[in-house]
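G., the chain you wanted modeled:
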Amino acid sequence: MSKMNLAQKIISSHLLSGEMTPGSEISIRIDQTLTQDSTGTMAYLQFEAMGVPRVKTQKSLAYIDHNMLQEGFENADDHRYIQSVASKHGVYFSRPGNGICHQVNLERFGKPGTTLLGSDSHTPTGGGIGQLAIGAGGLDVAVAMGGGPYYLNMPKVMNVVLTGALKPFVSAKDIILEVLRRLSVKGGVGKIIEYTGPALATLTVPERATITNMGAELGATTSIFPSDEMTHAFLKAQGREGDFVALAPDEGCEYDETITIDIGQLEPMAACPHMPDNVKTIQEIGPIKVDQVAIGSCTNSSYLDMMKVAAILKGKTVHPSVSLVIAPGSKQVLTMLAQNGALADMIAAGARILESACGPCIGMGQAPCTDAVSVRTFNRNFFGRSGTSSAKVYLASPEVAAATALTGVLTDPRTLGNAPQIEMPKAFPINDTGVLAPAATDEGEVLRGPNIQPFPVNHAMEDTVGGEVLLKMEDNITTDHIMPSNAKLLPFRSNIPYLSDYCLSPVDATFPSRAKAAGGGVLVAGQNYGQGSSREHAALVPLYLGIRFVLVKSFARIHMANLINSGIIPLVFENPADYDAIDQGDSLYIEDARGQVEKGGTILVQNRTKGTTIAATLPVSGRLQQVLLAGGMLAYTKAEK
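Predicted structure as tokens:
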């Protein structure tokens, strides 16, 4: 491979095993890791179970940004646990209020050309500065913190060539919405999206990060931009010029697929309910009445985004029927807004300022009213994710959101007159006091609250595996369906028994009780099962409920990895039409399960109710076959020591 694209270059420089042939298993060295408090508690519990005294990465960081509402002791206790376990084991701790993990990591820690593994699906935000940044389940991150390799199937690399220049009031959000419109929420599965083209010279790092962040909604392994003069300017402004390295694909390198987008032809768009790829232009949707506008999240909470919003709101008043909430992405951003007066402009217009956190994006507060229309600058609008099942959520740019807040209806910002011109700062104020360095040794005490319960651990695979089809589901079942993560449930992310009463309840409220009564069983679903968040609770809770295997038309990447890590067998229909021949309540079993999994390839599933045989594929490597036979990654890792 003489000429390589950028993704191949970084993978090659970190390759530990395997051949860089698309679809084949490889392992890579991980330079940095990040966790957040929603997934981090479980990741650190698993890291402790591995018995490694100190992390072995270049830098590992623990962020508190998801579960910020402290209605009871649970969140505060878990924050204290993460702070103490991070200090003991060599992990830097970003305190509550310091900002959203992806925004802060981009500002202060991400480095071009390095690898980052994060227990959050939007970790690919780091691709905005030329970092190979991948989202994964907490156990995979724990293994990487312990110095272990990260295994994945070598992705294809898709080149998205950007030409032209954005017109006024058209933004980076519209670029990624266009990519989603073209490719769909499963169009990036098994791929890295690599951006090239003359338009990159006009796109700042925060704009690039918006695009790579929401690339997670494509199902892509990650997205990446080159590290160029824009990257250099950003890192210099952050006082990190020493972290810069120029990175670009080789001239004449090849890609597995290529699409071209003239960004000069784009106009303001929005993703309509309830899927990020349900994209239409604002003009096509029309001036629908809007009840709530929420601006922020790891997609659109940068200084540039916030300044555009402040400029649009300045001297005006939020429409009486609209509740406008704004969450700056980091302490750095909030400080700058406070210093230059933009924060006062937002407040004077009638905005409610939230702390620098994920907040309403993950259902942590600000649930809309009944039957509301909410316009949000976030990355996901899955059914019920806002906390209000009857609400309709539209995803749009900060410019669209700000214009809509003023008019009370979905508004094309091009109707407002001249677009604000915001320059990238030559220097950002640097204040890292919100990040605590770990202790020098591992002799400190880990502080555990009563909410932290042991996580379930599977046993070695039995010879016969199966049970009743407890639930038959359709396409695009998300991790929000499998394990809801709202303000009421997030405080219990380290209490699997408690969470089990809510597993798959958005699909069928009777599922938890039926699963417990049956002593477990199997799940059947359609395409793209498990899309969305990296939260491994969507595998750990089904494990606790006794789910033996999941049979689907296709899986989302991270969720399938989490199932394997938990020892739950992920099966894919060889003939998708067999899905139609299964009914909820049927009994499905794999006879000689150990022998079939050991052999790999086609797995025969017996439908004892109908007396039929279903051919399914187990799409895993030989190593992962052994992981499943052992009963999951922890058992396999311990056996390998």
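Residues 170 and 428 are 25 Å apart (CA to CA).

Shout if anything looks off.
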